[in-house]
Amino acid sequence: MKALVVYESMFGSTRTIADTIGSALSQRGSVRVVEVGTLAAEPGGAVVTHDVDLLVVGGPTHTFGMSRPATRAEAVRKHGSVISTGIGIREWLDAVRLPADIHGAAFDTRVGTMRLASGAAAKGIDKWLRRMGVDIVGGPTSFLVKGMTGGLMDGQLAKAKEWGAQLALAVE
């Protein structure tokens, strides 16, 4: 199995989850974990090649869904520097070309203290992947944070490791 984990992260929690998922996937094959702006800037960064079996896409939840340029700018204004300074997952998904037989899954990070009101970017990513013809192997999954810059809530790394292992098994 060859997997590609693409993430957007503002303050590091989503990157940590992506790395943990990637580590779990690496037990079953080769994995590349890459920040979306870095990938988009590479030659061919808007094309996922046919040798990729599993595409995992994740990002932070901003105002009930995937980030937008305005919500990313607001994060910078309020909190200073961020990890993903270029395009976000939404813009990458709008431009990317995928092979016809790829499997996929979506994840997000969201504030755990506002479960009912915080929305979930993973639901939007999941819908987008389905519209693109991706065979979804794991439902949209959220990982909870203590706040925008507060880090992950307890148990989220173990949850990410288990979810990554389940995705790998689903693709085998």
* Total beta-strand segments: 5
Number of helices: 6
Oligomer status: single chain
Largest sheet: 5 strands, parallel
Order of SSEs: EHEHEHHEHEH
CATH class: Alpha Beta
What would you call the structural class? alpha/beta
Low-confidence stretches: none
Q: What's the pLDDT, averaged over the residues?
A: 90
CATH-scheme architecture:
3-Layer(aba) Sandwich
- CATH H-tier superfamily: Flavodoxin domain
Helix content: 25-40%
> Given the C-alpha coordinates, what overall shape results?
globular
CATH topology call: Rossmann fold
**Spatial extent as radius of gyration:** 15 Å
**How far is the N terminus from the C terminus?**
7 Å
Order of neighbouring strands in the sheet with most strands: 2-1-3-4-5
Strand residue content: 15-25%
Number of domains: 1
How is this fold's topology laid out?
Layout lengths: L1 E6 L5 H13 L4 E6 H6 L12 E7 L8 H11 L9 H7 L7 E9 L9 H11 L3 E11 L10 H16 L1
Parallel strand pairs: 1-2, 1-3, 3-4, 4-5
What is this structure, in a nutshell?
The chain has helices spanning 13-25, 36-41, 69-79, 89-95, 121-131, 156-171; strands at residues 2-7, 30-35, 54-60, 103-111, 135-145. With 172 residues, the protein is α/β, with parallel strands linked by helices. Helix 1 (13-25) packs across helix 6 (156-171).
Give a written overview of the molecule.
With 172 residues, the chain is an alpha/beta fold. It has a single domain (2-171), classed as 3-Layer(aba) Sandwich (Rossmann fold), CATH 3.40.50.360. Helix content is 37%, strand content 23%. The chain is built from six helices and five strands, in the order E-H-E-H-E-H-H-E-H-E-H. Strands 2-1-3-4-5 form a five-stranded parallel beta sheet, with helices on both faces. The model has no long low-confidence stretch (mean pLDDT 90).
